[in-house]
Design brief:
single chain; alpha+beta; eight-stranded mixed beta sheet; 12 strands; 30% helix; Aminopeptidase; 8 helices
């Protein structure tokens, strides 16, 4: 798709160009600076930026440059099984005056939405999603003017590897935790345990394994299966997602609905803490949904996790009302 035309007065100052894997260093530096300008720090993994730029799925990536320097990135990816493209705009915090930033960002979103209508099955009822640090009030206001509304907040929760306190729930007597679990059993648990939750995408086994194997710090030895009397009951994947921060991540954890509240999730988290300590890592972190229907954040807090960052998830219709 042809890039959008920039607003009058900006076209002579800024140039647009497609982005790909070769631009990773520049894009990662810009995205990191964007988050640091709001939060004072960034937990953005380089591998996740690379995944965005090199995604084999339908996607669009454009860079805005001035004097050869990348100052803004507009991108969107449509992941398999997900009817809503995930979109993002990152801006160099040192870019000019707010009117310039606002105009360029608006042009980027128009381009992204126009692209999204060409790759979704039903543009009339489709939506686009994005995320931003909850503390970024200025960008939230700009997105609100473009039709975005907040759906929920995702928390980054973090614990020291020695912070485990226990949940107060007595695990089932026949509960066992198995590392290096059969990927098919883990896939079955996740597809059942996450069904109906926010952002759930039902994936075939092959697509599931392919997508998870591309995550930062993936290791099949860190896939765990919880069984009760030999029958699968829950599953968890852990990744070495942030070695530069001496941190590991609980990427996903699910327990079958009929077995929740029986100490299974706590036992899986106990295994994650043990793995973190064994690897000599200092921190364990995970993402929690503020709208969780099974009160997962309370469970996480009970074993020592604390909220360290909040990210707002926003959506807007593809077609303007």
């Amino acid at each position: 798709m042809d890039p959008p035309e920039l607003p009058d007065g900006l076209a002579a100052r800024f140039a647009l160009s497609p982005l790909a894997g070769d631009d990773l260093d520049e894009v990662f530096a810009l995205a990191t600076a964007d988050r640091v300008s709001v939060l004072g720090t960034s937990r953005l993994a380089r591998e996740l930026v690379e995944l965005r730029l090199t995604s084999p799925f339908p996607s669009t990536h454009l860079g805005v440059r001035t004097n050869g320097r990348l100052v803004q990135v507009w991108d969107a990816v449509l992941y398999p099984g997900d009817p809503e493209p995930f979109c993002e705009v990152n801006t160099d915090p040192g870019l000019g005056t707010p009117p310039d930033r606002d105009a360029l960002e608006a042009a980027g979103w128009r381009h992204i939405v126009r692209w999204a209508t060409t790759v979704t099955d039903d543009p009339a009822s489709g939506r686009v999603r994005t995320s931003l640090p909850t503390l970024d009030l200025a960008r939230r206001e700009r997105l609100s003017r473009l039709g975005f509304v907040e759906e929920r907040v995702m928390w980054v929760m973090e614990a020291a590897s020695d912070a485990e306190r226990g949940t107060g729930r007595t695990p089932l007597p026949e509960l066992e935790i198995h590392a290096g679990a059969d990927p098919r059993a883990v896939h079955a648990i996740f597809m059942s345990g996450f069904a109906g939750t926010y952002g759930f995408i039902e994936l075939s086994y092959d697509d599931f394994v392919a997508s998870r194997s591309r995550l930062p710090g993936h290791d099949p030895a860190l896939w765990y299966l919880a069984t009760v009397a030999g029958r699968p009951a829950g599953a968890m994947t852990v990744t070495r997602a942030a070695p530069e921060r001496s941190a590991m991540q609980v990427s996903e954890l699910a327990v079958l609905p009929e077995l929740r509240g029986r100490g299974i999730a706590g036992a899986l988290l106990h295994a994650a803490f043990e793995t973190t300590r064994r690897d000599g890592m200092r921190l364990l972190y995970l993402f929690a949904d503020s709208e969780s229907h099974d009160d997962a954040p309370t469970l996480y807090a009970s074993v020592g996790f604390e909220t360290v960052q909040a990210t707002s998830m926003l959506t807007r219709p593809l077609v303007d009302p």
